[in-house]
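User: what does the whole thing look like in 3D?
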Amino acid sequence: MNKLIIDTDPGVDDSMAIQFALASEEFHIMGITTVFGNVNIEQATINALRLLHLAARPDIPISKGASKPLQGEFLGGVPFVHGNDGQGNTWRPAGPLKPIGVSADEFIIEQVLRFPDQISIAALGPLTNLATALRKEPKIQDKVKEIVFMGGNAFCSGNATPAAEANILSDPDAADMVLGANWPLTMVGLDVTHKTILSRDVLDEIALFRSPSNDHVMEAYQFYQNFFMKVNKIDGTFVHDSSVIAYLIDPGLYKTVVSPVRVETQHGISRGKTWPSLGESDHEGAEVLEPWRNRPKIKICLDVKDRMVIQLIRQRLTR
Ligand code: RIB
Ligand code: CA
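Assistant: Here's the predicted 3D structure for the full assembly of 319 residues, as C-alpha coordinates:
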Protein backbone atom coordinates (compact mmCIF):
# COMPACT_ATOMS: atom_id res chain seq x y z
CA MET A 1 0.00 0.00 0.00
CA ASN A 2 1.14 3.51 -0.86
CA LYS A 3 1.60 5.64 2.27
CA LEU A 4 -0.23 8.83 1.28
CA ILE A 5 -0.56 12.34 2.72
CA ILE A 6 -3.30 14.45 1.14
CA ASP A 7 -2.63 18.21 1.27
CA THR A 8 -5.91 19.91 0.52
CA ASP A 9 -8.08 23.05 0.55
CA PRO A 10 -11.54 21.42 0.64
CA GLY A 11 -13.22 22.52 -1.74
CA VAL A 12 -15.91 20.40 -3.30
CA ASP A 13 -13.63 18.53 -5.70
CA ASP A 14 -11.09 18.03 -2.91
CA SER A 15 -13.82 16.24 -0.95
CA MET A 16 -14.52 13.86 -3.82
CA ALA A 17 -10.76 13.24 -4.22
CA ILE A 18 -10.51 12.37 -0.51
CA GLN A 19 -13.50 10.02 -0.88
CA PHE A 20 -11.83 8.46 -3.94
CA ALA A 21 -8.60 7.88 -2.00
CA LEU A 22 -10.49 6.47 1.01
CA ALA A 23 -12.25 4.00 -1.30
CA SER A 24 -9.00 2.84 -2.94
CA GLU A 25 -7.11 -0.03 -1.36
CA GLU A 26 -3.89 1.17 -2.96
CA PHE A 27 -3.53 3.78 -0.22
CA HIS A 28 -2.73 3.84 3.46
CA ILE A 29 -3.71 7.45 4.20
CA MET A 30 -1.19 8.64 6.81
CA GLY A 31 -2.87 12.00 7.25
CA ILE A 32 -4.62 14.98 5.74
CA THR A 33 -2.98 18.40 5.87
CA THR A 34 -5.06 21.48 5.20
CA VAL A 35 -4.21 24.72 3.45
CA PHE A 36 -6.04 27.95 2.59
CA GLY A 37 -7.29 28.21 -0.98
CA ASN A 38 -10.91 27.59 -1.94
CA VAL A 39 -11.79 28.82 1.55
CA ASN A 40 -9.85 30.15 4.56
CA ILE A 41 -7.78 27.73 6.61
CA GLU A 42 -10.32 27.49 9.42
CA GLN A 43 -13.12 26.44 7.05
CA ALA A 44 -10.81 24.16 5.04
CA THR A 45 -9.87 22.35 8.25
CA ILE A 46 -13.50 22.08 9.42
CA ASN A 47 -14.42 20.65 6.01
CA ALA A 48 -11.70 18.00 6.19
CA LEU A 49 -12.65 17.09 9.79
CA ARG A 50 -16.35 16.84 8.89
CA LEU A 51 -15.65 14.63 5.87
CA LEU A 52 -13.55 12.15 7.87
CA HIS A 53 -16.25 12.10 10.57
CA LEU A 54 -18.94 11.36 7.97
CA ALA A 55 -16.68 8.72 6.42
CA ALA A 56 -16.21 7.13 9.87
CA ARG A 57 -12.42 7.56 9.61
CA PRO A 58 -11.49 9.31 12.87
CA ASP A 59 -8.25 7.29 12.78
CA ILE A 60 -6.74 9.54 10.08
CA PRO A 61 -4.97 12.57 11.62
CA ILE A 62 -5.77 16.02 10.26
CA SER A 63 -3.15 18.72 10.58
CA LYS A 64 -3.93 22.40 10.01
CA GLY A 65 -1.62 24.29 7.68
CA ALA A 66 -0.95 27.65 6.11
CA SER A 67 -3.54 30.42 6.35
CA LYS A 68 -1.98 32.60 3.65
CA PRO A 69 0.61 32.53 0.86
CA LEU A 70 4.37 32.97 1.46
CA GLN A 71 3.99 36.61 0.45
CA GLY A 72 0.84 38.68 0.76
CA GLU A 73 -2.51 37.81 2.26
CA PHE A 74 -5.31 35.28 1.73
CA LEU A 75 -7.51 36.84 -0.95
CA GLY A 76 -10.81 35.33 0.11
CA GLY A 77 -11.27 32.04 -1.74
CA VAL A 78 -13.73 31.25 -4.50
CA PRO A 79 -17.26 31.13 -3.01
CA PHE A 80 -18.79 31.35 -6.49
CA VAL A 81 -17.19 27.98 -7.34
CA HIS A 82 -17.27 26.01 -4.08
CA GLY A 83 -19.82 27.95 -1.97
CA ASN A 84 -19.09 30.17 1.01
CA ASP A 85 -18.45 27.10 3.17
CA GLY A 86 -16.33 25.44 0.46
CA GLN A 87 -18.86 22.60 0.38
CA GLY A 88 -21.57 23.88 -1.92
CA ASN A 89 -23.26 25.90 0.86
CA THR A 90 -24.45 22.70 2.54
CA TRP A 91 -23.34 24.15 5.92
CA ARG A 92 -23.41 20.76 7.66
CA PRO A 93 -22.28 20.75 11.33
CA ALA A 94 -18.53 20.46 11.75
CA GLY A 95 -18.72 17.19 13.71
CA PRO A 96 -16.68 16.12 16.77
CA LEU A 97 -13.21 15.64 15.26
CA LYS A 98 -10.32 18.03 16.05
CA PRO A 99 -7.01 18.61 14.25
CA ILE A 100 -3.79 17.28 15.82
CA GLY A 101 -1.51 19.78 17.55
CA VAL A 102 1.22 19.56 14.89
CA SER A 103 1.22 22.01 11.98
CA ALA A 104 0.86 20.68 8.43
CA ASP A 105 4.47 21.35 7.41
CA GLU A 106 5.81 19.77 10.61
CA PHE A 107 3.55 16.73 10.04
CA ILE A 108 4.85 16.37 6.48
CA ILE A 109 8.48 16.60 7.68
CA GLU A 110 7.87 14.12 10.52
CA GLN A 111 6.20 11.53 8.30
CA VAL A 112 8.66 11.82 5.41
CA LEU A 113 11.69 11.46 7.72
CA ARG A 114 10.05 8.62 9.66
CA PHE A 115 9.19 6.68 6.50
CA PRO A 116 12.02 7.46 4.03
CA ASP A 117 11.18 6.83 0.35
CA GLN A 118 7.69 5.64 1.31
CA ILE A 119 5.53 8.76 1.59
CA SER A 120 3.63 10.01 -1.46
CA ILE A 121 1.99 13.42 -1.25
CA ALA A 122 -1.14 14.36 -3.18
CA ALA A 123 -1.19 18.18 -3.20
CA LEU A 124 -4.66 19.42 -4.10
CA GLY A 125 -4.39 23.11 -3.18
CA PRO A 126 -1.84 25.93 -3.08
CA LEU A 127 1.70 24.58 -2.48
CA THR A 128 2.39 26.70 0.60
CA ASN A 129 2.65 23.81 3.11
CA LEU A 130 5.16 22.01 0.89
CA ALA A 131 7.19 25.20 0.50
CA THR A 132 7.41 25.86 4.24
CA ALA A 133 8.15 22.19 4.95
CA LEU A 134 10.99 22.36 2.40
CA ARG A 135 12.33 25.58 3.94
CA LYS A 136 12.24 24.11 7.46
CA GLU A 137 13.81 20.77 6.50
CA PRO A 138 15.45 20.59 3.02
CA LYS A 139 16.32 16.92 3.66
CA ILE A 140 12.74 15.93 2.80
CA GLN A 141 13.64 16.43 -0.88
CA ASP A 142 15.69 13.24 -0.77
CA LYS A 143 13.32 11.26 1.43
CA VAL A 144 9.88 11.79 -0.10
CA LYS A 145 8.73 9.05 -2.48
CA GLU A 146 6.90 11.44 -4.84
CA ILE A 147 4.71 14.51 -4.94
CA VAL A 148 1.80 14.67 -7.38
CA PHE A 149 0.06 18.03 -7.46
CA MET A 150 -3.07 19.38 -9.09
CA GLY A 151 -2.03 22.71 -10.47
CA GLY A 152 -0.66 24.70 -13.33
CA ASN A 153 -1.25 24.87 -17.04
CA ALA A 154 1.67 24.08 -19.33
CA PHE A 155 0.22 24.58 -22.81
CA CYS A 156 -3.32 25.77 -22.19
CA SER A 157 -4.96 28.84 -20.70
CA GLY A 158 -5.72 29.22 -17.03
CA ASN A 159 -8.99 28.94 -15.11
CA ALA A 160 -8.57 31.58 -12.39
CA THR A 161 -7.25 34.08 -14.97
CA PRO A 162 -6.49 33.65 -18.66
CA ALA A 163 -2.88 33.02 -17.58
CA ALA A 164 -3.11 31.09 -14.33
CA GLU A 165 -4.60 28.01 -12.69
CA ALA A 166 -6.16 28.65 -9.26
CA ASN A 167 -3.84 26.64 -6.98
CA ILE A 168 -0.70 28.16 -8.47
CA LEU A 169 -2.17 31.68 -8.51
CA SER A 170 -3.00 31.37 -4.79
CA ASP A 171 0.74 31.17 -4.03
CA PRO A 172 3.05 31.55 -7.05
CA ASP A 173 6.14 32.01 -4.85
CA ALA A 174 5.51 28.71 -3.09
CA ALA A 175 4.88 27.01 -6.42
CA ASP A 176 8.11 28.32 -7.98
CA MET A 177 10.03 27.15 -4.89
CA VAL A 178 8.42 23.68 -4.87
CA LEU A 179 8.93 23.23 -8.63
CA GLY A 180 12.60 24.21 -8.21
CA ALA A 181 13.40 21.65 -5.51
CA ASN A 182 15.06 18.27 -6.11
CA TRP A 183 12.21 15.89 -5.41
CA PRO A 184 10.11 13.66 -7.69
CA LEU A 185 7.28 15.95 -8.85
CA THR A 186 4.40 15.31 -11.23
CA MET A 187 2.16 18.15 -12.41
CA VAL A 188 -1.47 17.23 -13.03
CA GLY A 189 -2.60 20.49 -14.53
CA LEU A 190 -5.40 21.90 -16.62
CA ASP A 191 -3.75 20.31 -19.68
CA VAL A 192 -5.36 17.04 -18.54
CA THR A 193 -8.03 18.03 -16.01
CA HIS A 194 -9.79 20.10 -18.65
CA LYS A 195 -9.89 16.95 -20.80
CA THR A 196 -11.53 14.89 -18.06
CA ILE A 197 -15.25 15.48 -17.49
CA LEU A 198 -17.45 13.80 -14.89
CA SER A 199 -20.83 13.89 -16.63
CA ARG A 200 -24.14 14.46 -14.89
CA ASP A 201 -25.08 10.83 -15.65
CA VAL A 202 -22.02 9.50 -13.83
CA LEU A 203 -22.56 11.95 -10.97
CA ASP A 204 -26.18 10.75 -10.70
CA GLU A 205 -24.93 7.15 -10.62
CA ILE A 206 -22.42 7.93 -7.86
CA ALA A 207 -25.18 9.69 -5.87
CA LEU A 208 -27.14 6.41 -5.80
CA PHE A 209 -24.40 4.92 -3.60
CA ARG A 210 -25.71 6.13 -0.26
CA SER A 211 -23.50 6.75 2.74
CA PRO A 212 -23.19 9.77 5.08
CA SER A 213 -19.99 10.96 3.39
CA ASN A 214 -21.15 10.24 -0.15
CA ASP A 215 -24.48 11.96 0.48
CA HIS A 216 -22.59 15.04 1.70
CA VAL A 217 -20.16 15.14 -1.23
CA MET A 218 -22.88 14.63 -3.81
CA GLU A 219 -25.05 17.32 -2.24
CA ALA A 220 -22.07 19.68 -2.36
CA TYR A 221 -21.56 18.74 -6.00
CA GLN A 222 -24.93 20.27 -6.95
CA PHE A 223 -23.57 23.79 -6.37
CA TYR A 224 -20.23 22.93 -8.03
CA GLN A 225 -22.01 21.48 -11.09
CA ASN A 226 -24.09 24.64 -11.48
CA PHE A 227 -20.88 26.67 -11.70
CA PHE A 228 -19.59 24.55 -14.58
CA MET A 229 -22.92 24.64 -16.38
CA LYS A 230 -23.00 28.45 -16.13
CA VAL A 231 -19.34 29.16 -16.88
CA ASN A 232 -18.16 26.27 -19.04
CA LYS A 233 -21.52 25.21 -20.47
CA ILE A 234 -20.83 21.57 -19.52
CA ASP A 235 -23.39 19.22 -17.98
CA GLY A 236 -20.99 17.85 -15.39
CA THR A 237 -17.66 19.03 -14.00
CA PHE A 238 -14.00 18.98 -14.89
CA VAL A 239 -12.06 16.47 -12.77
CA HIS A 240 -9.33 18.47 -11.06
CA ASP A 241 -8.28 17.00 -7.70
CA SER A 242 -9.45 13.42 -8.30
CA SER A 243 -7.12 13.33 -11.32
CA VAL A 244 -4.20 13.31 -8.85
CA ILE A 245 -5.62 10.23 -7.12
CA ALA A 246 -6.23 8.56 -10.48
CA TYR A 247 -2.60 9.27 -11.47
CA LEU A 248 -1.32 7.79 -8.20
CA ILE A 249 -3.43 4.66 -8.74
CA ASP A 250 -2.41 4.24 -12.40
CA PRO A 251 0.18 6.63 -13.86
CA GLY A 252 -0.27 4.79 -17.17
CA LEU A 253 -3.53 6.67 -17.64
CA TYR A 254 -1.48 9.81 -18.36
CA LYS A 255 1.03 10.80 -21.01
CA THR A 256 3.81 12.90 -19.54
CA VAL A 257 6.82 14.90 -20.69
CA VAL A 258 9.69 16.09 -18.51
CA SER A 259 10.84 19.67 -18.35
CA PRO A 260 11.96 22.31 -15.90
CA VAL A 261 9.00 24.59 -15.05
CA ARG A 262 9.10 28.17 -13.84
CA VAL A 263 6.22 30.11 -12.33
CA GLU A 264 5.52 33.77 -13.04
CA THR A 265 5.68 35.46 -9.63
CA GLN A 266 5.67 39.06 -10.86
CA HIS A 267 2.48 40.99 -10.11
CA GLY A 268 0.86 41.45 -13.49
CA ILE A 269 -1.58 39.85 -15.90
CA SER A 270 0.53 36.67 -16.16
CA ARG A 271 1.09 36.09 -12.43
CA GLY A 272 0.75 32.40 -11.62
CA LYS A 273 1.42 31.08 -15.14
CA THR A 274 3.50 27.87 -15.20
CA TRP A 275 6.07 27.90 -18.01
CA PRO A 276 7.88 24.72 -19.12
CA SER A 277 11.19 25.25 -20.91
CA LEU A 278 11.22 24.72 -24.68
CA GLY A 279 13.25 21.52 -24.53
CA GLU A 280 16.75 20.16 -24.01
CA SER A 281 18.38 23.17 -25.56
CA ASP A 282 15.88 25.88 -26.10
CA HIS A 283 17.51 26.93 -29.32
CA GLU A 284 19.62 24.65 -31.50
CA GLY A 285 23.10 24.56 -30.05
CA ALA A 286 22.31 27.18 -27.41
CA GLU A 287 22.08 26.56 -23.68
CA VAL A 288 18.75 26.21 -21.93
CA LEU A 289 17.45 29.74 -21.27
CA GLU A 290 18.65 31.14 -17.95
CA PRO A 291 15.35 31.03 -15.94
CA TRP A 292 15.13 27.26 -16.59
CA ARG A 293 18.87 26.49 -16.48
CA ASN A 294 19.94 24.05 -13.72
CA ARG A 295 16.31 23.69 -12.62
CA PRO A 296 15.20 20.11 -11.96
CA LYS A 297 12.91 18.54 -14.52
CA ILE A 298 9.41 17.62 -13.42
CA LYS A 299 6.87 15.32 -15.06
CA ILE A 300 4.06 17.23 -16.77
CA CYS A 301 0.84 15.41 -17.68
CA LEU A 302 -0.11 16.41 -21.21
CA ASP A 303 -2.67 13.80 -22.20
CA VAL A 304 -5.03 11.43 -20.44
CA LYS A 305 -7.14 8.34 -21.07
CA ASP A 306 -10.07 10.30 -19.70
CA ARG A 307 -12.70 7.61 -20.16
CA MET A 308 -10.61 5.21 -18.10
CA VAL A 309 -10.13 7.84 -15.39
CA ILE A 310 -13.90 8.35 -15.21
CA GLN A 311 -14.43 4.58 -15.11
CA LEU A 312 -11.95 4.31 -12.22
CA ILE A 313 -13.70 7.07 -10.25
CA ARG A 314 -17.12 5.57 -10.94
CA GLN A 315 -15.94 2.09 -9.92
CA ARG A 316 -14.36 3.24 -6.64
CA LEU A 317 -17.16 5.61 -5.57
CA THR A 318 -19.96 3.10 -6.11
CA ARG A 319 -18.72 0.19 -4.10
O1 RIB B 1 -7.90 24.82 -10.44
C1 RIB B 1 -8.56 23.80 -9.73
C2 RIB B 1 -8.00 23.66 -8.35
O2 RIB B 1 -8.29 24.83 -7.59
C3 RIB B 1 -8.64 22.50 -7.58
O3 RIB B 1 -7.71 22.00 -6.66
C4 RIB B 1 -9.77 23.16 -6.85
O4 RIB B 1 -10.11 22.47 -5.64
C5 RIB B 1 -9.15 24.49 -6.50
O5 RIB B 1 -8.37 24.30 -5.33
CA1 CA C 1 -8.29 21.82 -4.29
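In plain terms: The longest helix spans residues 212-232. The radius of gyration is 18 Å.
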